[in-house]
Amino acid sequence: MxxxxxxxxxxxxxxxxxxxxxxxxxxxxxxxxxxxxxxPNRLAAGGLSGLATILHYVLASRVxxxxxxxxxxxxxxxxxxAFRSGGWxxxxxxxxxxxxxxxxxxxxAPFIRPLATGDPLLAALYGGAITGLGLGMVFKAGGNTxxxxxxxxLLARRVSLGLGQLMLAVxxxxxxxxxxxxxxxxxxxxxxxxxxGASVIDLVQEGLSVNKAAYxxxxxxxxxxxxxxxxxxxxxxxxxxxxxxxxxxxxxxxTVVSRRELDALKTLVRVVDPSAFIIITDVHEVLGEGFKQTxx
Length: 296
Prior knowledge:
single chain; alpha+beta; Alpha-Beta Plaits
């Protein structure tokens, strides 16, 4: 049998391989979204990709600047910041994600057919969704693709905001530059792509809200617990609380159920105690028995 240290090393090696595979797939998905929808439609959807798109078109009459190579060149300073702030492992993933996306954009560009040309709204929606999906995959693997992604991830350690929200703030300046370069209409479509991408990033990071958590305050806690455990087949946890208005000690029952079980839960609780107070919240991910199992 493997000792604890050997098992830990094996798990970590497996996770690193999975992370880099996920980062590679995410970088390629992001590159496709840029090559197919955003770049050919002059939609600068924030970040260094948006800035590189602006330079690509503004300087087109003088010199041809490939978007991927331009992004890679501008990332050098931010990569130094990543090394100093996040350590070698964070820096290594940053370099890998940055190079993978930059090379992917330029390597795939000759083979990708531009889509939704002449329809900037469609391009913004699909481009934002696809790039958001790809970036979400990269972030989920603990990496990033450089640029403002690095800034957002570093800020996320100190600010209680999602990565998507932080990227929106950082991208504001790029969107202003896009308005000056391409006009306000295309800049507004670019903002649509940013919002869609940010929403998809957070969705990939947090997951779909397919489960519900319920807090139940009842005068019949034993009966409520019994129907949850036996009729629904779900676990429940009770903890003591005190009503600040009445000053009475109460027991609060906490349980997590799937979305399809929610109606049954409410019905059973109402049958046992019609006056029960029920609070229901969304749960993005549940790990453990009866739900998603923790993976190595």
